[in-house]
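notes to self, project folder thing:

trying the whole complex as one job this time. last attempt i did each chain seperately and stitching them together was a nightmare. three parts in total, labels are on each line so i dont mix them up again. if this works i'll redo the older ones the same way
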Amino acid sequence: MNEPSRHTTFHPRWYRERMSTYWWLWRWKYLRFVLREMSSVCVAWFVIFTMMQVRALLRGQADYAVFQEWLRSPLLLVLNTVSFFFVLYHAITWFNLAPTAMVLRLGGKRVPDFAIAGANYAAWIFATAVVAWFILRG
Amino acid sequence: MEITSHDVLLVGGGGAGLRAAIAVAETNPKLSVAVVSKVYPMRSHTVSAEGGAAGVARPDDSLDEHAYDTISGGDWLCDQDAVEAFVKEAPEELLRLERWGCPWSREPDGHIAVRSFGGMKKQRTWFAADKTGFHMLHTLFQTSLQYPAVTRYDESFVTRLLVDEGRVQGVVAIELMSGKIQAITARAVILCTGGCGRVFPFTTNANIKNGDGMALALRAGATLKDMEFIQYHPTGLPFTGILITEATRSEGGYLLNKDGYRYLQDYNLGTPQPQPVLRSMELGPRDRLSQAFVQEMEKGRTLKGPYGDYVHLDLRHLGEKLINTKLPFVRELCLKYENIDPVKEMIPVRPVAHYMMGGVSTDIHGATPLKGLYAAGEVACVSINGANRLGSNSLPELLVFGARAGKAAAQFASEQPGPTGAVLAQARDEQGRLVQQFLNKTGGKERLATIREEMQKTMEKCAGIYRNGSSLAAGAQRLHELQDRYPNIALDDRSLTFNTERTAALELGFMLDVAESMVQCALHRTESRGAHQRTDFPKRDDVKFLAHSIVSRNAEGSSRVEYLPVKITRWPPGERVYGQPAQPAPTR
Amino acid sequence: MAEMIQLEVARYSPEKDAEPSFQTYEAPLRKDWVVLDALNHIKDQVDGSLTFRWSCRMGICGSCGMTVNGEPKLTCATFLTDYAPGPVRVEPLKNFPVVRDLVVEITDFLEKLQKVKPWLIRKDDKPMSEGEFLQTPEEMDRYKQFSMCINCLLCYAACPVYGLDPLFSGPAAIALAQRYNMDSRDQGAGERLDLLSQSEGIWGCTFVGECTEVCPKHVDPAGAIQQYKLTAAMEWFKSFLPPGGNP
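result (full assembly):
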């Protein structure tokens, strides 16, 4: 489609400010955003961790004992604790943002944000309860 | 000097300008159209209109009734052939805008909704929540982006019309970004620069409404019509002049003086009813409401504030739900600009200068007496608004006459030869003037703002809601003094880049010219009609003054006022009567 | 003696300066004055060369966007008293080239707006004599919010993606595209999707969400973009279905 003809202006020297590499440190909201994005790394770590755990399980009692010993090392304790909080942050921020992307309409009215976020939280709590029941009953 | 050429040139890119540009592009797609606006089009003042646009829509309504309401509201100064054409084309234009995507508010069944508006006997005002002008302007702007024939010169300030061989052949404009002065020639020019509210101190008008097109036309040899008729909107916020839409009153708001009394009942506007009654009390015509305020003020029954007198607009009894659905913008405005919540408190209001009925005189096709020059919108005076405009008539006016002017200019331009050589010499002269008198100006001892404020004070005092011969004469004298002081302003800004002090100085020059024609017309019209009320001549005089004031400039630079009879077709002049027991507004 | 407040205003004149600097002024601190009133006071009484854009003074024209104490704001809607005792730092809107003082260049936005085809696209038309397209209030609700954009560009100033990558279409342009996509009268969603489902279109957005935070008209451009992403993803999946699905 033809672009309408535009009058192009001669312009004086514009000043373009360069965006600093540390732009994300200048505002609290930007910092929270970058942390949210980085939390995906921790999610990825837990995926790998779970795969390692399953592999150790499949290899038998002895291997799993070694694995559990490894889990008690200071490095893993710190790593998993930190990752746990980041994954929590990841889940909470995404559940709170879900209503912005998912607009459901029931009977012509928009379903309120807290209902959609709430549904996510509810599903999460339910899944956690199921897993906890399996783990703790034994 | 840079010179570009087009076929049709629009000065101003608001509602009328964009509608006209589209009309030209559709009438003859081979013509190249230039839209030269001193601001980006979506900043034009059309954007601030709130209430609605009138067009006959209901089966129980008729074109004749819309015409009669307009003509009687205009105190019989409207040209009736123009009004008949206007009411006929308005619904179609509003519908066309709907086709272009305008989000008109709807009934539950999906049809376009209409509501009542002051001065209209039937419900015929189309509306888009309470941001009608905003939606109309953005729809027009976004639709206009589809036409490759339209070239926009954004932020280009037109300083002069180029005239040769008795016809207008283009403009000289300053490109704000670079400071470059350029000539843009065209075979037809349409002025769509809006009104001139900024000659007054309290106005709803934006900073950009300085009567540019009116001054440009006057200086080029065209005539202005009915310049004495300036409409005050009865409800504006005192400091900022922000308009509180008439819709607050059509939804049922009350105007109360300092004793909490609905004072309008003392002024022949009917009696208080529980539901708003069309054309009575708070839904009476704007000029009657503004006059009632001034009289209350003289009786000492208005409230006193830091910026002047005011009264209260009470919306509390309408309830939060209605205010949030029908008047959300009003609530937002009051909270953000005066820290007042209309749900809980009363809004301080006073009459503010709002709309210019007068303007560049045109016929019903938007053509001025100067060949090649057209005008549409608030800058023009056709006249369909007469001595007093009815609310919700100005938005359809932009569309109807924007389209008409566009079509007429397109046809005219197709038959014209290109620009003459003399035009370029004129352009160079103008460039010299701008450089010498503004850019390279040295010395000067007055501040621009001082002269502007004194002009505004003078206009409020002598050409406000009530006028008389001696105050007008004093005002005219004062304006002459200000004209003499104007060349003596000191300009601080020496830069070429985006020099807004220079444009402010040029705008002040335009405003001084426009103010002078307003005062001259008011001085010569020795009667009272519509928005022009003279305490020394309180009666309407149809024998001498059933005519438009036509003001022009003669060679020495002084104004000359003549008269042109109003065109009467089917409605002979009658009494403007309000507060009749007309049928009450249908329950919502 | 009236109370005063200090303003530190960015100045830049391309003929003289290599880069912007700050100049300090004083303005009366009145209860109902906004930053714009202070700037006008300075221009009228103190320094006529101070340059900025403004028009309506009521938050509907979108001209007066500037950075006030680091935040993008409409200066006609920002009370001075909120910053008392000051000083108030006023700079031009971020992420746009600075032309002069507080004026920025916005042609980039207008070009992007043009590209998303912000007009009603119809494949078939209805003669005018048949009246309006019917649209219920519920149908209007689906796009009404996105139609409130005043093109003030505060969202572009707040968006770090636009700051880092000027090719990004940006919040307002995409929100306006969505405004038409969701309009029940429009039939052009497919055309716009082809244009916007690219890395400089909706996929450039990483949902920082600052655009929605700063929008003075509550347009929620972040919401518009995320919803658009959902639609684009579904269309992509649907394209694998046999023909007969939606075009």
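what i see at first glance: Residues 483 and 512 of chain B are 7 Å apart (CA to CA).
need to look closer tmrw
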